[in-house]
Amino acid sequence: MPRELTIIYEPAEDGWWIATIPEIPGAFSQGRSKAEARANVVDALSELMAARREMALEHPATGYETEALPLSATAQ
């Protein structure tokens, strides 16, 4: 299993940057600089994962079990 994700940066209009994490559908954001776009897409990823977790646990199957899978990220 890959232990890292990819951020793709694309220049947008008026000097903005769009940041996308292609491994996670729906994880994208923007910023006035690449650094701001990175921070925003990492926040978006966190919110997306929390929302998906909440939705998955809302109506669990009978007899299910869960396990926490820790992930670590290194700041750049």
What's the pLDDT, averaged over the residues? Answer: 89
Low-pLDDT sequence parts:
none
DSSP helix fraction: 25-40%
**Spatial extent as radius of gyration:** 15 Å
As an assembly, this protein is: single chain
Number of continuous helical runs: 1
Q: How large is the share of residues in beta strands?
A: 15-25%
Anisotropy-based shape: elongated
The chain-level structural class is alpha+beta
Describe the main β-sheet briefly: 3 strands, antiparallel
What order do the SSEs take from the amino end to the carboxyl end, as H and E? EEEH
> What is the straight-line distance between the termini?
22 Å
Number of strands: 3
Main-sheet strand order equals 1-2-3
Q: Features of this protein?
A:
76 residues; alpha+beta; three-stranded antiparallel sheet; 1 helix; 33% helix
Question: Can you describe what's shown?
Answer:
The protein is α+β, with helices and mostly antiparallel strands and 76 residues long. The chain has a domain at 8-56. Helices cover 33% and strands 16% of the residues. It has a three-stranded antiparallel β-sheet with strand order 1-2-3, covered by helices on one side. Strand 1 and strand 2 (17-20) form a beta hairpin. The longest helix has 25 residues, at 34-58. The chain is elongated. The model has no long low-confidence stretch (mean pLDDT 89).
